[in-house]
Amino acid sequence: MKNNESYKFVKLEKLSRGRFKNFIIVILVISIIGVTFINKSKAKYRVTQSIQVVSGDIYYAKFDYKIMKVYLQNKDKTSYVDNGTTIPTSGYKLRPIGNGANDSYCTINNVRAEDVTITYNNGQISINSKRKGAKCYLYFDIQETLADVIKKQVNTVSDGCPAYEEAPSITSIEDKKSLLCKGIDDFGDTYYFRGNPTNNWVKIGNFYWRIIRFNGNGSIRLIYSGNGKAETSGTGTQTKTLAYNRQYDDAQYVKYVYGSTDSTIKADLDSWYTTNLKSTYGSKMDGSVGFCNDADTGSTFEFYQYFKPHDRIYSNRKPTFKCNTPTTNLFTTSGGTKGNQKLTNPIGLITADEASFAGATNNDYYSGYYLYTGQNYWTMSPFFFYTIGSVRVFYVYSNGGLLSDYVNIAYGVRPVINLKADTLFKEGGAGTSTNPYEVVI
């Protein structure tokens, strides 16, 4: 009898455990189904709205609006054209919500809504509202380029600017005037800074630059002037000191690239560009406008073979922004319409001609122009080849003048780059050293 009772007890215990296990499984299945249903409901709910519990206001997410129309300002800026519902990706700025005839606005239940906010960044629109059903009408103005803004300040000959394409005179800027003058380059009209401007500072990441000029294609030519802060003098205005070329006993060593070999200074500039600008800002660079390394031969005297930059600046005092024989001397990247397309990286040096237009001369020393730094630094303009065995290139002397020296001497390196014409800058910049125009990433 005891054995039977023991058997029944064991059997009952096994049965209870089995039922309990099944019961747990059922509970788990029901829980999973319930959680899945709740999450799906929440996901659907989040697509349309989010709740700010603390204030009690309901804020509807950006999915709960409809863009009805997009209007773009026409080129003469007198009216707006219907662009359907397509948002422009660049070249325009959004007119904010307002009550003007061409201000952006949204309606809810056919009434203008004052509690809607709209932001536009990098071609993306974000609209937020406390209520459902916003219908929005967006107006975009043409975004003025930096060149458009600054070119309104162009000076005239009587102010101290040289006549169009004329050699500058040092006497016209002895009072340290800030001038924006007009010239001509291989691409059209160029607008260049001369004298001592205070509104030509640009910041790219952590680097500071001075605008040399707006090229004929609208791009912006800049020269390096500081890492971490705006520098106007001293070694901070350059990345390092370096020989232009370690080879010096042949005429070809004045070239930025000779044959398939890079000059010493080009190799260094390429490395600096790759490390500091290429990954983040490479898409903003214009490589088609190029850098002029005018190595065409000019006059001769005994054992000296001079190059064209010498004749223009020393003999004729008539610099130019145009590049002699651009198919060989204008260093550009591939894809442009002019130049030799030999560059992988769109970086170079200033020319002696550009320094002349800014205020430097070969026989007077002048510190009252913005390219003066109190340091010696290289240009990329060849000077002469001494046939017994040495070559010289122009450099900006520490007292502000333009001199030449042997290419194997170490002088300052000041990178020069060109930003695309449509580069966008942060709002509020004034171009000063303390409030520069800052490039938007």
What report would you give on this structure?
The protein has 441 residues and is of the alpha+beta class. Mean pLDDT is 86; it is low at 1-15 and 40-59. It has 2 domains: 59-142, no CATH class; 151-438, no CATH class. The chain has helices at 2-48, 146-151, 264-276, 278-281, 308-315, 326-329, 352-358, and strands at 50-51, 58-59, 65-73, 80-82, 92-94, 105-108, 111-112, 116-121, 124-129, 134-142, 178-185, 188-195, 201-204, 207-214, 220-227, 240-243, 257-258, 261-262, 291-292, 297-301, 304-307, 330-331, 377-386, 390-396, 402-406, 410-413, 416-419, 437-438. The protein is built from 7 helices and 28 strands. The strands form 8 sheets. Strands 11, 12, 13, 14, 15, 27 and 28 form a 7-stranded mixed sheet that branches. The radius of gyration is 33 Å and the shape is elongated.
Can you summarize this structure?
By secondary structure, this protein is of the alpha+beta class.
Which helices and strands appear, and what pairs or packs with what?
Layout: H1 2-48, E1 50-51, E2 58-59, E3 65-73, E4 80-82, E5 92-94, E6 105-108, E7 111-112, E8 116-121, E9 124-129, E10 134-142, H2 146-151, E11 178-185, E12 188-195, E13 201-204, E14 207-214, E15 220-227, E16 240-243, E17 257-258, E18 261-262, H3 264-276, H4 278-281, E19 291-292, E20 297-301, E21 304-307, H5 308-315, H6 326-329, E22 330-331, H7 352-358, E23 377-386, E24 390-396, E25 402-406, E26 410-413, E27 416-419, E28 437-438
Parallel strand pairs: 3-10, 13-28
Antiparallel strand pairs: 1-2, 3-4, 5-10, 6-7, 6-10, 8-9, 11-12, 12-14, 13-14, 14-15, 15-27, 16-26, 17-18, 19-22, 20-21, 21-23, 23-24, 24-25
